[in-house]
């Protein structure tokens, strides 16, 4: 790793914050309709997200953009969906964190449910890392990093972000 000028980075962060932060401004969006990830195996993905994490499968349809591909959806609460595509016949390669790609997806869950999901991950042999007593990080069957966070929507580790 190269030397990083942390003071310069913080100064740049402060400059951008001062120029662009719009606390209390109203968004033009209604919310996140769905986030779409890729998977190698539809059934394995359904079993993981529905059976291990408790996100109900709500629909499965053919992908209009790729013949033979399935587009399917899970309810992750508050009218938000997590969607997947499979692309049979394409060699997509393993999951990779790249610029423009997914680093992780944080899904808010109630604190009591968070404890239950931690037990479910353990019971199903899913390795995870717990952070700050409110976040669990793990990888889905295709390697995507998922976070379950028990903080309320709009908050993170006691900081109001919305």
Question: How would you summarize this macromolecular structure in one to three sentences?
Answer:
The protein is built from three helices and ten strands.
Walk me through the structure.
There is one protein chain. This protein has 162 residues and is of the alpha+beta class. The protein has helices at 6-20, 42-52, 111-123; strands at 34-39, 57-62, 70-75, 81-86, 105-108, 128-131, 135-139, 145-149, 155-156, 159-160. The mean pLDDT is 92.
Write the layout of secondary structure elements.
Blueprint: H1 6-20, E1 34-39, H2 42-52, E2 57-62, E3 70-75, E4 81-86, E5 105-108, H3 111-123, E6 128-131, E7 135-139, E8 145-149, E9 155-156, E10 159-160
Parallel strand pairs: 1-4, 5-8
Antiparallel strand pairs: 2-3, 3-4, 6-7, 7-8, 9-10
Please give the radius of gyration in angstroms.
18 Å
Distance between the first and last residues' Cα: 33 Å
Task: Identify the overall geometry.
Answer: globular
Contiguous helical run count: 3
Share of residues in helices: 10-25%
**Rounded mean pLDDT score:** 92
Structural class by SSE content: alpha+beta
The stretches of 5 or more residues where confidence is low (pLDDT under 50) are none
Q: Please summarize the sheet with the most strands.
A: 4 strands, mixed
Determine the strand fraction and express it as a percent band. 25-35%
Q: What sequence of helices (H) and strands (E) makes up the elements?
A: HEHEEEEHEEEEE
In spatial order, strands of the major sheet run 1-4-3-2
Number of strands: 10
